[in-house]
Amino acid sequence: MAARSTSKTSESSDKVSVICRALRRAIIEQALEPGAKLPEDALGERFGVSRTIARHALGQLAAEGLVELRRNRIAVVATPSWQEARDAFDIRIELERLVVRQLAGKLTKAQIAELNAHVDAEDGARGGADAVSIRLATEFHILLAQMTNSPILVRYVSEVAYRCCLTLSLYSRPHSTECAINEHRAIISALAKGDEAKVMDLMHHHLDSVANRALVAPTPQRGRDLLDILAPYADEVTSDRVVKLPKVARRG
Amino acid sequence: MAARSTSKTSESSDKVSVICRALRRAIIEQALEPGAKLPEDALGERFGVSRTIARHALGQLAAEGLVELRRNRIAVVATPSWQEARDAFDIRIELERLVVRQLAGKLTKAQIAELNAHVDAEDGARGGADAVSIRLATEFHILLAQMTNSPILVRYVSEVAYRCCLTLSLYSRPHSTECAINEHRAIISALAKGDEAKVMDLMHHHLDSVANRALVAPTPQRGRDLLDILAPYADEVTSDRVVKLPKVARRG
DNA sequence: GGCGCCCCAATTGCATGCAGTTTGGGGGCT
DNA sequence: AGCCCCCAAACTGCATGCAATTGGGGCGCC
C-alpha cells in the first residue's frame, strides 16, 4: 500500500495559523524580502487581529527559521548566511533521499497522476514570475513528502525546503527552472518504476545541482551582513571602539 | 578546523523560553508522562507568569512535537503512535549520520575530552533513575550536533532526539543503557581517528539498535489511542453513531 | 439500574492596557 | 562641520479582562 493511516493535520484554522501561512507565502515569494521589518502592530492591523496573535505567529515562524526574533527588537525576515544556506541544503538532501526511498515503488496511480499534474503546473508557470516558479518547485518536494504519510517527515521537509526557498531568493541569480522541471519528471518516473537506488541518486543530484547553481560562491556583497564581512578584519584590531566604526545604515 | 564561526543561540532568556526548557525537560524525564494535561492557568501559576506566556510556550512545544494542541481543548503531552516513533528514528538516523560525517577527523582535543567527560557522566548515572540515563544519552547526541556549529542541524537533531526520547519512555521496557554507553565510546574513538565511513556506520547501527530494542512491536495495548486501534473496525460500520460508542475514559 | 439531556464550572481564544526598552533625530556644544 | 547627549515616539514584554466553547456532573426519564 502507498498510504499508511490517517494523519491529523497539525495546522488548523487558528487565526495564528492563518497569519503564519500568509507570512510564509509572502516570504518565500519574496513579497517580503530578507531583512524586512515585521512590527507586531502593523501585522495585527493588516490581518485584523490583535498584537497578541501577530506575536504568536511570529514566534512560530521564528521556530521555523523564517523570521529572526531578538528581544525588544522588531522582528525581521531571516537573512540566512551563506553557510546556513549550505547547511540547509545538506540536511535537505538527506531528508529527501529518505522520502524517495520510502516512496519508491509504493505510489498509487492517482498519486503519480497528481505529481505529474503538479509538474505540468510548474511547466505552465515557466513564463511567469521567478518567485512563483521557485514556490511551485518547492511545493513539488513538499507534495512528495506528504505522500510518505509521515507527519514528522512532512514537517521537516517543508521547513527546510522553505528555508532553502528563502536562501534561493537571496543568493540565486535569475535562474532557469527548466532543467529542474525535467529532473522532477525523471524522479517521478523512477519512483513509478520502483528503482530505489536510482531515485535516491536522482534526488541527491537534483538538489545538489539546484544548490550549486544557486549558491554560486560566498558572494560577499549581496545578502551577507556587513558586520559579518568585516569580522575577520576586525580580529586584527585591538581597540574596543572598532565595533562602533561601521556606523553605516544596515539595509534599510 | 573544527569550529566554524560564531553562532547565535536561538533560545534566549525569555520567560517563554525558560518555561519551554522546563517543560521539555519534565517531559523527557517523564515527570510529565504522555497524555498529561497542561492547562494554561496551571502552568502560568506554577511558573509565576500569565496565561499569555504559558500559552506561547505551549505553542512552541507543539511546534516541536512534544505537546498536542487541539482547539478549545486542554493541551496534553504528545503521545506519539508507534509508527511516528519509527518515523522519528528513521529521520534521526539520517540526520545523525550527517552529523558524524561532518565531524569525522575534525574534532579538537578539547572537544574529544568534552565528549569523553559526558560519557563518563552517563556511566556515573548508571545506577540512578532510568529517565536520567535516557536524558543523558540523548544529550550526548545533541552535544555532538552542537559541535558541527550548524544551528539548523542542532535544532533538528535536538528536536527529533527529544521526540525519540519521549517515545522511548512510552514504549521501552526498563532497559539497560550499558551497551549504548559503549557504543558512544566507540563513536568518539572513530570520530577521533577520522574514519568517516566507519563512524557513520557506527552511528547508524547504534541508533537502529536503540530503536529496535525499544520499539519492540506495535504493542497495541500500551500507548496507542483506543480510537486508533478501533479505526479499522469502524471502517466497516456505516452508522454515524459509531464514533460515539467507545465512551470509555481515555487515559486518565 | 441505565441512558440521555441540560446546565454550569473550567478552560481556551483573543483584545486591550500598561510598563519598560530601543531608536533615531534635533539641539547644543566643541 | 562634526560629535554627543537627551528625549520623545515607536515598539516590545507581559498581565489582565471578557466572550465563547467544552465536558462532566446531576437530574429526570425510561
Automatic annotation (TrEMBL), chains A, B:
Q: Which SMART domains match?
A: FCD, HTH_GNTR
Q: Where is the HTH gntR-type domain?
A: 13-80
Q: From the UniProt record, which GO molecular function terms apply? A: DNA binding; DNA-binding transcription factor activity
Matching entries from Gene3D superfamilies are given as: GntR ligand-binding domain-like (1.20.120.530), Winged helix-like DNA-binding domain superfamily/Winged helix DNA-binding domain (1.10.10.10)
Alphabetized UniProt keyword annotations: DNA-binding, Transcription, Transcription regulation
PROSITE patterns in the record, alphabetically? HTH_GNTR (PS50949)
The record's section on PANTHER family has: HTH-TYPE TRANSCRIPTIONAL REPRESSOR NANR, TRANSCRIPTIONAL REGULATOR, GNTR FAMILY
Q: Provide the protein name.
A: GntR family transcriptional regulator
